TrEMBL record:
GO terms for cellular component: cytoplasm. It is found in: Cytoplasm. GO terms for molecular function: 4 iron, 4 sulfur cluster binding; cobalamin binding; epoxyqueuosine reductase activity; metal ion binding. Keywords: 4Fe-4S, Cobalamin, Cobalt, Cytoplasm, Iron, Iron-sulfur, Metal-binding, Oxidoreductase, Queuosine biosynthesis, tRNA processing. This is Epoxyqueuosine reductase.
Amino acid sequence: MFNLVPQRTQLIKQKALELGFQYCGVSKAEFLEEEAPRLENWLNQNMHGQMQYMANHFDKRLDPRLLVDGAKSVVSLLLNYYPEETQPQDTFKLSKYAYGQDYHFVIKDKLKTLFRFIQEEIGEVGGRVFVDSAPVMDKVWAKKSGLGWVGKNSNLIRPGVGSFFFIAELILDLELEPDGPVKDYCGTCTKCMDACPTDAITQPYVVDGSKCISYFTIELKDQIPQEVEGKFGNWVFGCDICQDVCPWNRFSTPHREPAFAPHPELLHLSKNDWMELTHEVFQEVFRKSAVKRTGFAGLTRNLAFVAGGAAALGSHDLPEDPV
C-alpha cells in the first residue's frame, strides 16, 4: 500500500510557505519527558512570578494528547517579524514584535486557513490551532521539529537566520513525517547573559521570568520594584536586548507581512511625545497592537518609571542599550 505520510507532510509544508510562514517543521505528539522536571523546577523556584497561567494545566503543557484527542503530530511554524525600520535609539522603546498588529490575530487567521486546507485536501482531520493561546510549550516543539535550537536566552534560534520569529502550532490527529532536531550553535558565547541589565538569565538556558524587563513592563500588574530602577534603558514595553546582542541576529532580514508594519506615527515619537501621550493618541497608534495588553495605564506607569530612573541618573547619563 502506498505510504501517503511523506506526501501529506510535504503538502502541508508547501501550503504553510504559501500562507507566508517562513518555516514549517513536524514532530511526533508525545509526552515531553525531558521538559517535565525542568518545568517543575522552574515553577518551584517561582521564576514565573505573577504569571500564574504558567503553572496552570501542568499535564497538558507537557502532553499535546491531552489537548487534542488522538493527537499524532505537532506542526510548528515560524513567522518572521523583524522590521525594516526600527525606532531611533534616543526614544522610549517597544519590543519589535509589538510594532504592528497583534500577532495573535494575524497568525490565527493563517493557521485557520491552513487547517481548512488540510481538511479539504486530506479529509476528516481533527486538531486545534495555537498561538500563545493554550498551555503549549511552543519553543520546545519548534526545537523538536528541527526549526532551530533554544539558546541561552531561552529564545528559539535558527541557524543563519536568527530569532525574531513568532512560533505557532497545529496539533493534529494525523500521522505526518517528523523532522529531527538541529544542533545547538550557541557555543561558548554569553553575550545575551552579559547584556541583560536585570540578570534575568540566571545561568545558560535558564531565564528567571520574574526578573525580565518584559515581565516588569507587560505581565506585572503591581508597581515595578524600586530595586530595578535605572536598569531598563529606554524599554517601556517588552525588551529585545538579549536578541539584539545575539550574533545570529545579524542575519535577520525584514519581514514581508503588511499587518506587521508599524503605525506611521510610531517610529517618529520622541521622548517628549511619549511623555505627553494622551489616551486618544494611544487608542489610535496602538489600536490593533499587542501594546493593548498593558493598556494606557500600564504604559504610562512604565514611562513614568523609566523616565524617573533616567532622571535619577541625570539626563546625560542615560544607560545605553547594548549593541
